[in-house]
Specification:
The chain has helices at residues 15-26, 38-45, 56-62, 73-79, 100-108, 127-137, 156-161, 174-183, 195-226, 230-238, 259-272, 278-302, 328-338, 351-357, 367-371, 384-387, 391-397, 412-417; strands at residues 8-11, 31-34, 67-70, 82-85, 116-119, 143-146, 166-169, 190-193, 309-313, 342-346, 362-363, 376-379, 402-405, 421-423. With 429 residues, it is an alpha/beta fold. It folds into two domains: 8-193, NAD(P)-binding Rossmann-like Domain (Rossmann fold); 208-423, Rossmann fold, CATH 3.40.50. The longest helix is centred in the middle third of the chain and has 32 residues, at 195-226. The structure holds uridine-5'-diphosphate-glucuronic acid. Residues 311-412 form the UDP-glucose/GDP-mannose dehydrogenase C-terminal domain.
């Protein structure tokens, strides 16, 4: 697997860039990783990871000799003809993707007819065309390939090495062939298509998954009114092959750096092209309301929340990551404080990131520390260690007896047997 692998460049050593670089190093490629952030590059040279992702630092460590970190683009240009672009495309105030980092990379490319940009960053449909036009106008000769990324935080290495599919959008030229060749050892289904369609696959996939979550969250809300249990409903629905069991976990809403951003970006993209994407408006709105429903559940049992002690278990937008971007805990903690409650929170990994974004919350050292003396406990992120909690001990340590299970992690009967009042998401009336 390691013979004659072509060296590649990766521009941007954030989440996608680093995982891509480490993944290709595992496949035997030399990878030239470029970032404008000197501190980050220095850290990486010393084996310091800028993000927390299971298995990533071990992989980087194992392939140190193949991974070259630099702030100088020339290092990548000299050794590699394929330059993967993995820079951030955060949302602007209006919801459109901010492409300034992408355009800065494009601008920094010299004229060359033996290099290609391979776009990993999530960009609006039409970005590839705009970049190709810029290359043509400046007679740069660069080729362009769209190769969207589908990895999930927390299982990114596995997602890289065992992808459901590889999507390559290009003009049927050497660059597209070379990207297909790079991914060949993974033996994944390949979708080779035009650039715009590849760009759309990415946005549409994320928007569809987000829609699935908002859909099951609304079913959960109806279950609460009708006495059905959404966990049972999702089990029954998921066995239908056309529906599938994944992304049918009701909860307190989706977060992260991708779904909220990409759903909004697709809605905006449609709007900018003159099409009103009705469904996506609702997906976003349902998600916002879902985060707030926890407050109503607490008030149902505790009345006014003034001076109530509320413990939050988990802060990250999902388990196995320290990522706090668009995490439901952000809305929840600020709403609770606005209602006069005292919030104590514990997350096994995300506390450092959370401290940058959340004010007024007391950070606890353990789950036991967080729940001590609490009137209610809210399970926000389903970290495996929370599934193992001794519920009787938790009940004993609390002042009150309410457990709001925001991710339907627990068996309601077991919670009740421990002497607690159980409130899940969509679990009966
Ligand atoms: C998502 C996609 O799943 C990846 O395929 C994609 O590559 C990535 O975005 C991206 O565009 O970069 P990620 O944001 O890492 O990956 O996280 P997910 O595992 O998809 O979870 C997103 C959110 O949905 C989390 O807040 C999670 O708690 C929530 N979720 C997920 C639910 O509420 N219910 C579910 O059934 C599944």
């Amino acid at each position: 697997m390691t013979t004659n692998r072509e060296p590649i460049g990766v521009i941007g050593t954030g989440y996608v860039g680093l995982v891509t670089a480490a993944g290709f190093a595992e496949l035997g490629n030399d990878v030239y990783c470029i970032d404008i952030d000197e501190a980050k590059i220095e850290g990486l040279k010393q084996g310091k990871m800028p993000i927390w992702e299971p298995g990533l630092s071990e992989l980087v460590e194992r392939h140190r000799s193949r991974l070259h970190f630099s702030t100088d683009l020339a290092d990548a240009l000299e050794h590699a003809r394929l330059l993967f672009v993995a820079v951030g495309t955060p949302p602007t105030y209006s919801g459109d993707a901010d492409l300034s980092a992408v355009h800065a990379v494009v601008e920094s490319m010299p004229a060359s007819d033996h290099h290609a940009l391979v776009m990993k960053s999530t960009v609006p449909v039409g970005t590839g065309e705009t970049i190709q036009r810029a290359f043509a106008e400046q007679a740069k000769g660069f080729r362009y390939v769209s190769c969207p990324e589908f990895l999930k935080e927390g299982s990114a290495i596995k997602d890289f090495l065992e992808p459901d599919r590889v999507v390559v959008g290009d003009e049927g030229d050497w660059a597209g062939d070379a990207v297909v060749e790079l991914y060949a050892p993974l033996d994944a289904p390949l979708v080779r298509t035009d650039i715009k369609s590849a760009e759309m696959v990415k946005l549409a996939s994320n928007a569809f998954l987000a829609t699935k979550i908002s859909f099951i969250n609304e079913i959960a809300n109806v279950c609460e009114e009708t006495g059905a249990d959404v966990v049972e409903v999702a089990r029954g629905m998921g066995l239908d092959n056309r529906i599938g069991p994944k992304f049918l976990q009701a909860g307190i809403g989706f977060g992260g750096s991708c779904f909220p951003k990409d759903v909004t970006a697709l809605k905006q993209l449609a709007g900018n092209s003159g099409y009103h994407f009705q469904l996506l408006n609702s997906v976003i709105e349902v998600n916002e309301l879902q985060k707030r429903r926890v407050i109503a559940k607490l008030e149902k049992h505790l009345g006014r929340l003034v001076d109530k002690q509320i413990a939050l278990l988990g802060l990250a937008f999902k388990p196995n990551t320290d990522d706090m971007r668009e995490a439901s805990s952000l809305v929840l903690s600020s709403r609770l404080q606005a209602a006069g409650a005292h919030v104590r929170a514990y997350d096994p990994v995300a506390e450092g990131e959370a401290r940058k974004l959340i004010r007024g919350v007391r950070f606890a050292e353990s789950a036991a520390d967080a729940v001590d003396g609490a009137d209610a406990v809210v399970l926000v992120t389903e970290w495996p260690e929370f599934a193992e909690l001794d519920l009787a001990a938790l009940a004993g340590a609390m002042r009150g007896d309410l457990l709001v299970d925001g991710r339907n992690l627990y068996d309601p009967a077991a919670v009740r047997a421990a002497g607690l009042v159980y409130e899940g998401i969509g679990r009966g009336g």
